[in-house]
Design a protein that fits this description.
564 residues, mainly alpha, disordered C terminus
């Protein structure tokens, strides 16, 4: 295109043009037209114009996938923060769980894991599997049985019997495992058992002292028994998994490139389930906390997930990361993409673009249904006033856990898609700054607003991946602009300034929900009706009793509030 092409390739102009094009979706949402016309504009932009533009510029498809991934993360966090009012600063941990769930199995890392367990079985696979199955069934069954019991329904003697019985079961399990399982040909250490029994004695001793002082300890004893049963169940899961890896170790060579790509669809569901389970496990011990305390502890638990990924070299390859991560194999789709003029290197990116588009639509529909459902109203009630919500019969723990699990599941499925797109995963992709960035998207767009959160994610992603790098590239060769003020290196400062400006000028967000807007501008929306009706009692002495601050009656028989 000659000179015009050179001008259009300018990084700043390129970023502006991409932003204006993606603004078509916002235009379609705000446009006061027939829904069918609005849908035509949106779908035409997303399904036809953008993929065809991405055929010429692959980075446009990549940017669109990034925007939709972050939009899904922001929608998940919007449930936790915007609806339920639970400030989760470790949200990116669920994203990491989904990414590693697929990356470990869809890469050569799985073959290396199988080889390790083939060389270091620790015990016979059959014995390990039997011990794991007994532990899993016994622990899970015991936990479910104890979970059904309420403290007021249990006699003190029965509560003590259950707690002591769980300790006996723990000791029996230890010696059973010590007989069949070894590590480096050494039996399990009795020192570890002694330390665990000492901890149990300390806990039960405290309960006995509390009972001697007249306190009811049945709830504490039942919780202790539940914890021991849950630990046995978790140990069973690990032992069953280890036995399965030992049994599969003979297939290590055949899986040098990872599992069959056709299992991609199964792992989509598995990533949702795994992230939801991790969300529940993280939420269980912390949901009694509120506000800043909840934020701090979720931040710590999120960092625990990242540090585990950094240190479990066998499974996550540590700081080196996992590569190459495979993706789904869709031969029919590849043939269609080839006929549309896409190059072979673009097939996977186009597939992931359409996949993440479908997933984000499903997530938005689920969010909309949840927002208007009974559970959505329960989340809002908890956010506004926990005491009032509990008094009205809202179960706090279960409702909060549902919020954590739902938000985590959205992050998990997008983490898997992110791993398939990047083909490389490392712990550096899941640092605290990513959680802060997702939270900034929710605040910028408008907490509680589905279109607002999507808009916030698009604005932040465009600034982060296109606009600020474009400005940095354009200013890199300008002599009078020092590199210390390069926009690409000042992202945190710029985003911080944007958030401060939003809090001061528009705290409800760019596209706020009606509910949130009324909450923040409640005083501005109050009508002053004192100059209407028969409100003379407010300004003419004691001519009558004032029954309301707005329209007050003058005569005793007048209706309270006046009449319009």
């Amino acid at each position: 295109m000659g000179t015009l092409g050179t001008v259009l390739k300018n990084p700043i102009l390129d970023a502006v043009m991409v932003s204006l094009f993606l603004a078509n979706i916002l235009f379609a949402y705000l446009w006061r037209a027939h829904p069918a016309v609005k849908a035509t504009v949106a779908l035409g932009s997303l399904l036809f114009v953008l993929p065809l533009a991405g055929r010429a510029d692959t980075s446009l498809l990549d940017l669109s996938i990034q925007i939709m991934i972050f939009a899904a993360l922001a929608l998940g966090l919007n449930i936790v923060v915007g609806l339920a009012g639970l400030l989760d600063l470790g949200y990116i941990a669920f994203f990491a769980v989904g990414a590693y769930t697929w990356s470990i199995f869809a890469s050569p890392r799985f073959s290396e894991i199988l080889s390790y367990f083939g060389e270091n079985p620790g015990a016979g696979a059959t014995g390990t599997l039997a011990l794991g199955a007994v532990s899993l069934v016994g622990g899970l069954g015991g936990y479910l049985a104890l979970q059904r019991r309420r403290a007021e329904q249990v006699r003190p003697g029965a509560a003590w019997t259950a707690a002591l019985g769980m300790i006996v079961a723990l000791v029996a399990w230890f010696f059973l495992g010590r007989g069949v399982f070894t590590l480096s040909e050494q039996p399990w250490s009795l020192v570890g058992l002694g330390a665990l029994l000492l901890l149990c004695a300390f806990v039960l001793g405290g309960q006995a002292l509390a009972q001697a002082r007249g306190r009811d300890v049945r709830g504490g004893l039942l919780n202790f028994s539940r914890v021991i049963a849950a630990l046995l169940g978790v140990a069973g899961v690990f032992l069953v998994t280890r036995a399965a890896l030992v049994l599969m170790s003979g297939q290590a060579e055949g899986l040098s490139g990872g599992i069959n790509p056709a299992l991609f669809w199964l792992f989509l569901a598995l990533s949702i389930f795994t992230a939801a389970v991790v969300g529940v496990l993280i939420g269980l011990p912390v949901l009694k906390l509120k506000g800043d305390y909840l934020a701090i502890i979720t931040l710590g638990l999120g960092e625990v997930i990242r540090v585990l990924a950094l240190n479990l070299d066998l499974y996550s390859a540590g700081s080196q990361g996992i590569t190459p991560v495979g993706s789904a194999s869709v031969p029919g789709f590849n043939a269609l993409a080839g006929r549309l003029g896409f190059e072979e290197s673009q097939y996977n990116l186009l597939f992931l673009y359409l996949l993440v588009l479908v997933v984000i639509v499903v997530i938005m529909l689920v969010n909309a249904r949840l927002d208007k459902s009974r559970i959505g109203r329960a989340w809002i009630a908890i956010r506004d006033d926990e005491v009032a919500a509990q008094a009205m019969g809202v179960p706090l723990l279960q409702t909060k856990l549902i919020a954590f699990a739902t938000g985590a599941s959205f992050a998990g499925v997008m983490g898997m898609i992110f791993a398939a797109k990047q083909t490389f995963i490392s712990p550096e992709s899941f640092v605290l700054n990513e959680s802060i960035m997702v939270l900034a998207m929710v605040i910028l767009g408008g907490m509680g607003s589905i279109p607002g959160v999507v808009l916030g994610a698009a604005v932040v992603a465009l600034l982060r991946f296109r606009v600020l790098p474009g400005l940095g590239e354009a200013s890199a060769n300008v002599d009078w602009i020092p590199q210390q003020v390069n926009p690409a290196q000042l992202q945190k400062l710029i985003f911080g300034a944007i958030l401060v400006a939003m809090m001061l000028l528009r705290p409800e967000g760019l596209l706020p929900s009606r509910r949130r807007q009324l909450e923040l501008h409640h005083d501005d929306n109050q009508e002053d009706d004192s100059g209407q009706g028969n409100a003379g009692a407010l300004g003419k002495g004691n001519q009558g009793d004032v029954y309301s601050p707005g329209l007050a009656p003058v005569k005793e028989n007048d209706r309270s509030g006046g009449a319009k």
